[in-house]
Amino acid sequence: MFTTRSLLLVSLIALALGKPMGSNMKLHESREGIPDGFSLRGPALPDRTLKLRIALVQSNVAELERKLMDVSTPSSANYGKHLSKVEVEQLVAPTHDSVDAVNAWLKESDINARPISPTGDWLSFEVPVRKANELFDADFSVYTHDETGKEAVRTLSYSIPAELQGHLDLVHPAITFPNFKGLRPIFSSQMKTAPQTLTCDVAITPACLQTLYHIPSSKASQPSNRLAVTGYIQQYANEDDLESFLDEFRPDTNSSTTFTTSTIDGGSNPQDPGEAGLEANLDIQYTVGVATGVPVEFVSVGDDVQDGGLEGFLDTVHYVLSESTVPNVMTTSYGQNENTMSRNLANNLCNAYMQLGARGTSVLFASGDGGVAGSQSASCRNFVPTFPSGCPYMTSVGATESIVSETAADFSSGGFSNYFAAPSYQTTAISAYLEKLGNTNSGKFNRTGRGFPDISTQGVRFAIFVGGQLGTVDGTSCSSPTLASIISLLNDRLIAAGKSPLGFLNPFLYSTGASALNDITSGSNPGCNTNGFPAKAGWDPVTGLGTPDFNKLLKAVGL
Ligand SMILES: *[C@@H]1O[C@H](CO)[C@@H](O)[C@H](O)[C@H]1NC(C)=O
Ligand SMILES: *[C@@H]1O[C@H](CO)[C@@H](O)[C@H](O)[C@H]1NC(C)=O
C-alpha cells in the first residue's frame, strides 16, 4: 500500500544469525486485570491466526511538537507556515537503527510484515496464536464481552526482546481491549420525530446556526479548501437525504450540491435508504449544509479492521497523512474511553494527529456524550476521560443548548486526561478554572491532565433527514461538524486573502481567539453520581472556551 524506506531496507540488511530469541525478554506493556465488562473464556487455539500490528518508535517527536507549536501559535514568526509531507515524515520516520533492529528480529522470527503507514513506522503481519505467545512471552486468550457476547483474543501483558527496547513502540491488539460499544456515533438519544413547525427553540437548522453564530450563507470560493468527514461501522451518508435536507433548509443553495467519497479498509457508501446512517447523515448534512460551497469529502472506513475499533482511527490518519495535500479540516464524531486503550497506543495515535496538525489540518473530534462518565460508561467512581479528547494535539468539541441563552448541554463530556499532561497553551486556563472549582469533585479527576473540550457549539435537537424521514438528534456529534463548517468558512476567506488555513487551532483559541468566542457560564455535565463540572466564566471542562462567533473570529484571524 505504501512504499517505504523500511520495506526497501528489509532486503538490504546483513543479518546476525543464530541468536536465540526470547533469551532476554523485557516486559513492555501490561494491564492490571481484565477490563470491566469482559470475562476470560479460555486459552486461544494455538493455530488460530492473529492479525498483529507493530509500531516502531518515531525518531523525533519532540522536534515535531516544537514545530507544530511554532506554526500554530499566532505570536510566532512562523505562524501558518505548515510543514510539507516530506518535512513531517523526516521528523517522525523511525531511525535506521530502529528499522534495522526490527527487521533483523522479523527476519530471525521468520515473519513477513508489510508497512501500513506512510513512514513505515507501522507494520502488520499474521501469526498463529502459538507463535505470538512465544514471540512476546504473552498469553493470548479468548475474552468474551459480557454485554454483546462478542469475543476478542487479547493478552494482559507482553514482553519484547531487550534489543528491541527503544525501537519497538507497541504491539496491537495486545492489551488494548476492543470497545464493542465504542467507536460509535456520539449520540445521547436516538432520532426523534421532528415537530411540525421548526423554530429554533424546537429544532436547530442551518439557519438557526447562521443567525446565532453569524455564519455567512454566501458560497465559499476556494476549491482547494477540503473538509473531511470520517465515517465508521457501516454508517453511510445518503445523497437523497442530503438533497432533501438542502431543499428544506438551504433553499438559497443548489440542492444538488453533494460530497465526494473516499473508502479505506473495504469501506463503501451504499445509497439504499435503509442503509442511511444517523451519524453519517448528520455529519454530512451539517457540513455540506453549513459550510456553503466548501468541498466536503466523506471518508468511509470499512470493516476490514478487527473489532471495528481503533485500527479504524489508525488507518484513517495514515490514509490522510499519505496524501500529498491534506484536508484543511477533519471532523470525527466517534470516540471511546481513554482507559480502554494502552498508553502507548493512545500516544501513538495522538502523535499522528500532531503530524496532521503540523501539515495544516484542524483535527476536530466530538468530546463524548456521557458527561464526566465519558463516552458510554454507565457506572463509575472516578471520572472517565474520552479519547482522543485527552490528546493535546487535536481540538475537542463539546455541546451547548438553548438559542436564547446558551447553556452547557448536560451530556457534554469534559474533564481531564489521565494519559496526557496539560499542554502549555492550556495551563493558565486550567489553573484559573481549578481555583474557581475549589474542592468540588476532588479526587475524582486528574488535576495535572490535559483538559477538554476546547470549544463547543449547539448540540441539541438538530434537524436531519434519515431514510427520507425528518427528525432531530442530540449529541456532541452535532457540534463537531458544526465547528468544522465554521472553521472551513474561515479558511476559505483566509486562503482567498492569500493566507494559510488555521491548522491546529488550540494555541490560537487559547490566545487571540478566546475573545472571539461566546463564554458559556451556566450548566454542567453530571455523571458518576456527581453533578459533574459546572460551566464557569473562562475555560471550563464542559463547554471549553465557549461557542464561536464568525464575525469576531474573522477579526481575530486578521481579516
Ligand atoms: C447544481 O449542482 C450540480 C452538482 O454539482 C450541478 O451538476 C448543477 O449544474 C448545479 N446547478 C446549478 C444551477 O448550478
Ligand atoms: C494524571 O495525569 C498525569 C499526566 O498529566 C499522568 O502522568 C498520571 O499518571 C495521571 N494519574 C493517574 C492516577 O492516572
UniProtKB/TrEMBL annotation:
Signal peptide: 1-18
Primary enzyme class: hydrolase
Record-level GO BP terms: proteolysis
Keyword terms, alphabetized: Calcium, Glycoprotein, Hydrolase, Metal-binding, Protease, Secreted, Serine protease, Signal, Virulence, Zymogen
Cofactor: Ca(2+)
Function: Secreted tripeptidyl-peptidase which degrades proteins at acidic pHs and is involved in virulence.
InterPro entries (alphabetical): Peptidase_S8/S53_dom, Peptidase_S8/S53_dom_sf, S53_propep, Sedolisin_dom, Tripeptidyl-peptidase_I
Annotated active site: 279 (charge relay system), 283 (charge relay system), 477 (charge relay system)
Reaction(s) the record says it catalyses: Release of an N-terminal tripeptide from a polypeptide
Residues binding Ca(2+), per UniProt: 519-520, 538, 540
Domain Peptidase S53 residues, every copy: 203-559
Region (Disordered): 257-277
The name this protein goes by in its record: tripeptidyl-peptidase II
GO cellular component: extracellular region
EC number(s) recorded for this UniProt protein: 3.4.14.10
CDD domains hit by this protein: Peptidases_S53, Pro-peptidase_S53
Cofactor binding note: Binds 1 Ca(2+) ion per subunit.
Chief location category: secreted
